[in-house]
Design the sequence.
């Protein structure tokens, strides 16, 4: 019997994600996720979800073998390592890297002293994100809910500012932090999309408008996390 759905359910519980939130993030219906719980994860989705949760494909599919890749064995030692190359060899002491928190002050990003988010080094390595180019921010509004809730902690790659249609980016707009999915329209028009399409319309900015309104792409959002707002019952 395919029990990968049980393992998926356990992973969601570990991450504090509800099935409906997870469905929104993966852009599928809640019924799809319920079907995965009951019938198992489709083979076409195994690699995607194994990478997402940083677990072994074989373990996710069958429950056999180690849960996590051998290169990220559990260790008490946590250090801000792997800073120079996304292809560096990982050791137990480099299981996690520390990504600094930043916030917008006076229209620019500044670091928050002694505040870091620990992220799996293997995950950044897989995404070719160099830790020196990474920063953490708080989701500033509700426009991407429920996919990315307000106040969720975002991790962004400051080196990736090239617009790839449909990807999500952090931006500065007249000194205000924003997070939107982006696409490019006619003659270089930048289109800002929100997940909550009912309450937020698509915004379009020509190159001249972007310059006049100081609209700057800060970086690509590659990770987010959040706590539930209420305890059940």
Sequence:
């Amino acid at each position: 019997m395919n029990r990968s759905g049980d393992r998926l359910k356990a992973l969601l519980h570990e991450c504090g994600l509800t099935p409906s939130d997870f469905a929104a993030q993966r852009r599928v219906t809640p019924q799809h996720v319920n079907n995965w719980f009951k019938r198992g994860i489709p083979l076409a989705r195994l690699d995607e979800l194994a990478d997402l949760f940083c677990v072994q494909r074989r373990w996710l599919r069958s429950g056999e073998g180690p849960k996590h890749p051998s290169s990220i064995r559990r260790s008490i030692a946590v250090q801000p390592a792997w800073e120079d190359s996304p292809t560096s060899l990982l050791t137990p002491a480099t299981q996690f890297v520390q990504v600094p928190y930043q916030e917008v002050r006076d229209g620019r990003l500044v670091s928050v002293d002694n505040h870091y988010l620990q992220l799996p080094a293997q995950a950044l390595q897989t995404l070719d994100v160099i830790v020196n180019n990474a920063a953490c921010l708080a989701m500033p509004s509700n426009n991407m809910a429920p996919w990315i809730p307000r106040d969720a902690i975002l991790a962004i790659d400051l080196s990736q500012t090239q617009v790839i249609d449909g990807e999500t980016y952090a931006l500065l707009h007249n000194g205000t932090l924003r997070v939107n999915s982006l696409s490019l329209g006619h003659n270089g028009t930048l289109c800002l999309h929100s997940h909550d399409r009912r309450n937020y319309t698509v915004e379009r900015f020509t190159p001249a408008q972007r310059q006049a309104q100081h609209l700057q792409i800060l970086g690509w959002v590659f990770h987010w996390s959040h706590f539930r707002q209420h305890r059940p019952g």
